[in-house]
Q: What sequence folds into this?
C-alpha cells in the first residue's frame, strides 16, 4: 500500500477539478494546469477531493499510484499558492539583473550570459546576488532554476557560482606548498 497514494487530494474552495479519462484538469485563481496520468492508475473526483487508485496489484501500479497522487497534489498547490525557487550567486563581480523578458547574468565569463525567461515563469532579482524563480508549474520552475544554476555551478574550492538557497557546498582544501 502506498502511504502517499491512499491520501485524497483536497480541492480547496475557488478551485475546480475534473477528470477526463487519464487527464486530470485543475483550474484555480493563479491559472489552469493538467496532467496525463499513467495507465496503471485511475483518478476520480468525489466529496471535494481527487482520489487516485491503482488498477492492478502490481509493483509498477503501486509505484505509479504514489507518483500520480503527488503530481495531482502539485497541480492543486500550483494553482492556489504557486511554487518558487531561490538561487544565490556568490563570487566577486557575479550578479544578475532582469531586463525585459531576459535574465542577464555576469558570472565571470568574458561575456554576459543572457537567459530568455520562458512563458509561465516569473523571475525577480530582489538583490543583484539573488534570483527568485516562481510559477504555477512545479516541474517548469525546477527546470528553469536548474538551467540557471548550470551556467556556473558552485565550485568546491572558493564556493563561487550559482547555488540554491540553503544548498550546502562541500568545501575542499587547496594545494599545500
A:
Amino acid at each position: 500500500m502506498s502511504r502517499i497514494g491512499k491520501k485524497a487530494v483536497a480541492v480547496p474552495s475557488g478551485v475546480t477539478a475534473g477528470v477526463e479519462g487519464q487527464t486530470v484538469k485543475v483550474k484555480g485563481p493563479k491559472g489552469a494546469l493538467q496532467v496525463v496520468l499513467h495507465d496503471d492508475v485511475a483518478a476520480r473526483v468525489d466529496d471535494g477531493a481527487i482520489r487516485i487508485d491503482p488498477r492492478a496489484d502490481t509493483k509498477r501500479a503501486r509505484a505509479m499510484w504514489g507518483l500520480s497522487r503527488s503530481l495531482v497534489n502539485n497541480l492543486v498547490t500550483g494553482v492556489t499558492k504557486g511554487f518558487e525557487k531561490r538561487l544565490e550567486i556568490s563570487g566577486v563581480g557575479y550578479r544578475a539583473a532582469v531586463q525585459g523578458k531576459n535574465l542577464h547574468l555576469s558570472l565571470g565569463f568574458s561575456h554576459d550570459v543572457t537567459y530568455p525567461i520562458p512563458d509561465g515563469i516569473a523571475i525577480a532579482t530582489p538583490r543583484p546576488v539573488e534570483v527568485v524563480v516562481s510559477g504555477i508549474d512545479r516541474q517548469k520552475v525546477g527546470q528553469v532554476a536548474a538551467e540557471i544554476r548550470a551556467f556556473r555551478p558552485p565550485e568546491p574550492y572558493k564556493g563561487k557560482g550559482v547555488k540554491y538557497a540553503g544548498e550546502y557546498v562541500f568545501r575542499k582544501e587547496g594545494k599545500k606548498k
The radius of gyration is 21 Å.
